[in-house]
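Field notebook, page 483. I keep forgetting to write these up properly, so this time I am using the form the group agreed on. The chain and the ligand, pyridoxal-5'-phosphate, are recorded exactly as supplied. Prediction of the bound pose follows.
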Amino acid sequence: MRAPTEDLAAAAVPHMTPDEFRRHGSEVVEWIARYMERVEELPVLSRVAPGEVRAQLPPHPPEEGEPFDAVLADLDRIVVPGLTHWQSPGFFAYFPSNGSGPAILGELLSAGLGVQGMLWSTSPACTELETHVMDWLVEALGLPREFRSDGPGGGVIQDTASSAVLCAILAARERTSGGATNARGGDGTLTVYCSTQTHSSVEKGVAVAGIGVDNLREVEVDAAFAMRPAALAEAIAADRAAGKRPSCVVATVGSTSSNAIDPVAAIAEICAREGVWLHVDAAMSGTAALCPELRFIHAGVERADSYCFNPHKWMLTTFDCSAFWVRDRRPLLAALSILPEYLRNAASASGAVIDYRDWHIQLGRRFRALKLWMVLRWYGLAGLRAMVRSHVELAHRFAGWVERDADWETAAPVPLNLVCFRHRAGDEVNQRAMDAVNASGEAYLTHTRLDGKLTLRLCVGQARTEAHHVERVWELLRAAAAG
Ligand code: PLP
């Protein structure tokens, strides 16, 4: 029992006042602006040893609140050295996760509003702005009009492409099983297809969806690392003969290892014939379709059941923001809708609104559309196209230098902004060259393995990468390989 004199409801809680927020908020915005100015001077790949960051943090949480300035000081002292600088113009690793001023401000506004948009009624603008910018993107990328929200289809912002592919697999699962898997669980007969080059998120999605990774078929690829449609057709036929139920094919536009583009049109033909769901994963490369001359990457997407690309990879929309569309939302909603009493409301019952809680795994959702809206309005499509064209041009320039040097070779076609290349002397030299570039602090590259050989990857996707950054990596690579 509490002491009768104690009024807990009236206890002083040290909230940040609006005035304090104004002051510290200005400091934080200034800190970020300064970070943008100096990020190029910081070593791109963090140099801390495992445990070094934690060793500098107090073992126990503070009992009393601390001044905000002390936290900002520790940000510089402890956190920044432990960062790999994804926003550095020398970041050429993996696929990018680029960002921009308008996106950061959109995130700040989203946090400031603190809206949770699980239902239309929990913040109508959160839903309607999202629906609207997703329809804008259909137009901007030349995607099929069936993906627009004014028909049976529609788009939704997911956190990541991994969540998007999981949703596609679940929708396919419900369509193939006529709703039986939601009701009674799987019977081990559903199968899913991707290529040997497909991102690991598909394997994870198949496992999470209860389909079982033994029922995932990794179809072989051609010399350009793209899925062979004939091999897909054979795999489906073999499964049908064995009593399996082919459910979903995942085609990739711009694979992670080599930027391979699966022949979506031929794959779509097979999917249509077989009644199999086709999901297209264009995680990074989809952004290129903003440029009409690069829209060839989407040939065949007009027949896909679902499609995803990540504005958080290459479209300046600070992580996280993954855009996912379906041609027909009914199987998706059949897989994911659930309506407890406490969520019932008149707007949902009217059928006139979208409740995005039914379009992804989790219930609650952030106001991500705000940053996407800000990016689209700040840059305009023309501004975004200019960035894409510049990156593709820089990647092609780099590929040209590699190809003209007798000691080096490209290891895969370069359709967009990723160059896969290697020194002809073999794995040891390539490893040495990559390690030297990464140790220099000026740039950061990662690798893959193609045709059994260690292959370096240079992906140009940073907002502020210019020609001289790419020239410098080439210089560092050649010096390291020679040394
Ligand atoms: N698909 C492809 C082709 C990717 O390259 C990646 C990540 O790089 C993913 C999916 C997974 O992306 P996310 O981190 O958004 O789940």
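OBSERVATIONS:
- The chain has a mean pLDDT of 97.
- The first helix runs from residue 18 to 38.
FOLLOW-UP: compare against the apo run.
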